[in-house]
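Treating backbone geometry as a discrete language has practical consequences that deserve illustration. In the encoding step, the backbone of a single protein was reduced to a row of integers, each denoting a local shape. The amino acid sequence and the backbone structure tokens for this protein are reproduced below.
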Amino acid sequence: MCKIIIHVLYLMCRDTALFMLPGLRQIRQRIIGLAFGARDVSVGRFARIHSAHPNPKANLKMGKHVEIGRGATIDYSGGLHLGNDVFLADQVRVYTHSHPVDGPNMNFEDNPILYSSLTFGDHVKVLSGAIILPQTESIGKGAIIGAGAVVTRPVPPFAVVAGNPARIIRYRKMQAQNP
């Protein structure tokens, strides 16, 4: 019963402009955190977090300190895990399902849907307008996805990728921190 109430509240705060008012934004963040079992989550205005197609395996897990920018679209139909300290900037698109163009039907949207799970490691940054497609499968720890990139394959840890399709530009050099 409690999960149903939280889900209804989530739908209300996701689709109602009332929850964008300054005094109600913190309540919106808390409801979204409860709906997805996350702590310290920040979700921007007009961001949509949803399962685009019914799937019994659809689930979303969020770590601590997850930030989702304005106008982002997050689809968790195939299963999505966001690690700790993940930042998804404004207008980012994340998809975990696809409609295969090869199949029995001429209209590819009538073909059976393919679901793919997707995992983001800790400390991942996805910059504005990037698109993460279902066949990506994983984005490694500390990776950075450039603005406007279209990611079509797995991204290794600490890689910096950009372009369409996204390619590895370089790897981040991690420097030892002074204690």
